[in-house]
Design goal:
An eight-stranded mixed β-sheet has the order 1-2-3-4-5-6-8-7, sandwiched between helices. Helices cover about 30% and strands about 40% of the residues. It has helices at about 20-30, 40-45, 50-55, 100-115, 130-140, and strands at about 1-5, 5-10, 60-65, 65-75, 85-95, 120-125, 145-155, 155-165. The model has no long low-confidence stretch (mean pLDDT about 95). With about 170 residues, it is α+β, with helices and mostly antiparallel strands. The chain has one domain (about 1-165): Aminopeptidase.
Length: about 170
């Protein structure tokens, strides 16, 4: 994929790429702190083995000219009656790259991978205070299926979360 004559690639990180994972995850948490349930402080001092363990879940990264600019993870449900479902996690695209198609291509890569392992339904939670993200997900076929009042606390303030889902076999 090319954007403004720059080369973009998207791929799943390997277990050996904790430095790439650390770089883009900490960037996301520091630049968009209100968009995540986790805080920068929850992640910044994690030992390498903890970063590696978190890569047990598939993590896809968008690279622009070799530098990470976006991330999207997948958390599959494990009870046998729920293995057809997975949750999008850690979604972030650098502000300067929004609107370029990188987010759509990250989502396509994650959805294709999810389909390949038998996932039929993607779900996610997004802050009600992030309408741009909700509009993005709606454009990508997600529908709102509920809300969690006070889904997380952001500096002591309760923030509602919107639960959205998308079928992958439709």
């Amino acid at each position: 994929m090319r954007t403004n004559e720059q080369e973009v690639s998207i791929r799943r990180l390997s277990m050996d790429e904790i430095d790439v994972f650390r770089c883009i995850r900490l960037e996301a948490l520091s630049r968009e702190p209100s968009s995540f349930a986790s805080r920068y402080e929850d992640w910044v001092n994690l030992p390498d083995n903890e970063w590696r363990q978190r890569l047990n879940n598939p993590v896809f990264v968008a690279f622009l000219n070799g530098q990470p600019v976006g991330i999207m993870g997948l958390l599959r449900h494990h009870p046998s009656k729920m293995v057809h479902r997975a949750t999008l996690i850690s979604v972030y695209v650098r502000k300067s790259q929004r609107g370029t198609g990188i987010a759509e291509n990250l989502l396509k890569a994650v959805a294709d991978y999810a389909r390949s392992i038998g996932v039929l339904q993607l779900q996610l939670a997004v802050s009600v205070e992030n309408p741009a993200a909700m509009r993005f997900y709606q454009r990508q076929g997600f529908i709102e299926v509920g809300q969690i009042p006070g889904g997380f606390l952001d500096d002591g303030k309760e923030v509602d979360e919107v639960i959205m889902m998308r079928r992958l076999n439709d």
